[in-house]
Amino acid sequence: MKVILLNVFGGPANQQDILDRFDRMPEVLNWQSIPANAVRPPFSVFIVSRADVNELANRLHTLFPSLVFCMSDLIAHHFNGWLPAEIADFVNSPRSSGRWEAMDPNFVLKGPPTQKY
């Protein structure tokens, strides 16, 4: 599992549109957003994923072609900033929300199911 930081700077999609889409993507295991109640950009989302940053960025661009954003990998204990403690813990100890594992007990062993959007 890796943590990817998404920074959204502009575009027609609001934060909830993106988070709702992440909730339907098996490669997105968990997420936290800052600010939690943003309606319009700018906002950031910390994502726990099995997918790499390029795959996730390409998927997001396909879903929201006009979105202006940047994605980058975060390495636990190798980032700095002034963030709420729960976000720092989220990055330093990434974990799945358990959603996909609850739906399919073999998920962890075989990886995310193939799904088209």
Layout of helices and strands:
Elements lengths: L1 E9 L4 H8 L5 E7 L8 E7 L3 H11 L4 E7 L10 H8 L6 H5 L3 H4 L7
Antiparallel strand pairs: 1-3, 1-4, 2-3
Q: What structural keywords apply?
A:
117 residues, alpha+beta, Alpha-Beta Plaits, 5 helices
CATH third-tier fold name:
Alpha-Beta Plaits
Let me know the largest β-sheet.
Answer: 4 strands, antiparallel
Low-confidence stretches: 109-117
Number of strands: 4
Rg from alpha-carbon coordinates: 14 Å
Order of helices and strands: EHEEHEHHH
Question: Strand order of the main beta sheet, please?
Answer: 2-3-1-4
User: What's the multimeric state?
Assistant: single chain
- Our count of helices gives 5
Distance between the first and last residues' Cα: 22 Å
Strand content bin: 25-35%
**Mean pLDDT over the residues:** 85
The backbone outline, from C-alpha atoms, is: globular
Question: What is the CATH class designation?
Answer: Alpha Beta
Helix content: 25-40%
Describe this structure in words.
With 117 residues, the chain is an alpha+beta fold. It has a single domain, classed as Alpha-Beta Plaits (2-Layer Sandwich). Helix content is 31%, strand content 26%. The chain contains 5 helices and 4 strands; from the N terminus they run βαββαβααα. Strands 2-3-1-4 form a 4-stranded antiparallel beta sheet, sandwiched between helices. Strand 2 (28-34) and strand 3 form a beta hairpin. The longest helix is centred in the middle third of the chain and has 11 residues, at 53-63. The radius of gyration is 14 Å and the shape is globular. The two termini are 22 Å apart. Mean pLDDT is 85; it is low at 109-117.
